[in-house]
Amino acid sequence: MNKVKISILSIVFMFFWGTINTSAAEQTENINVSTEPPIVEDEVLNGEITPFGLNKPGAGAYIDLRYQKMNVSGSAQASTLYTNNHFKGKTLVHMDLWNHTNRTLTVKIYKRGSLIAHKTITISPNSGVYTPISGLNANDLYYAAFYAPSNFSGSFQ
User: Fold this and answer.
1) Mind listing the pLDDT tens digit for each residue in 80-126?
2) In this structure, are residues 95 and 121 in contact, taking their beta carbons and an 8 Å threshold?
3) How many helices and strands in the chain, by DSSP H and E?
4) Where does the secretion signal sit in this chain (predicted)?
5) Distance of CA 92 to the CA centre of its chain
6) Which residues contact 91 (CB under 8 A, 6 or more apart)?
């Protein structure tokens, strides 16, 4: 008789445990996913870009800063954002960027193919910077990474 009671209790326990796990899984919120469509790799947007992609720019996507500035803006809670385009054409680039959050924003400038940042810039909460990025090769491709949490706007020229 005790074996029957234990068996019935085991079955009831397994049923309720499965129900609890299922309902918890249905309430999970989306984290680290973007509702934005992927960026077309070779798309050039006449200097106007919004870095909402989670991927580095493709080799064919660049803006020559000798002819136009590259405007940027974006925001993310948990993901690193990258500029949609590389920039090239100058050995000295000025970054003019405003941090719209109450947290420090970290921006890193990378040469295409490099794992080490060429320059790291930190921007205080609710403030802006106008800073030079020197030592660039005008023929190489560079991009910026904006580390979350972020909400920023500005340009490279």
Assistant:
1) 888 888 999 999 999 999 999 999 999 999 999 899 999 999 999 99
2) yes
3) 1, 10
4) 1-24
5) 24
6) 134, 135, 136, 137, 138
Distances (CA, A) of 139 to 44, 62, 86, 116, 125: 18, 11, 11, 19, 34
For the chain, report the end-to-end CA distance as a whole number of angstroms.
83
Show the tokens assigned to 1.
């008789």
Domains of the chain: 62-156 (2.60.120.260)
C-beta separation of 64 from 89 below 8 A? yes
**63-64-69 Cα angle (round to 5):** 75
Report the C-alpha gap between 22 and 153 in whole angstroms: 42
Tell me the one-letter amino acid at 60. G
pTM over the 0.85 mark: no
| Residue that wins the pLDDT comparison between 78 and 124 | 124
Residue type, 8: I
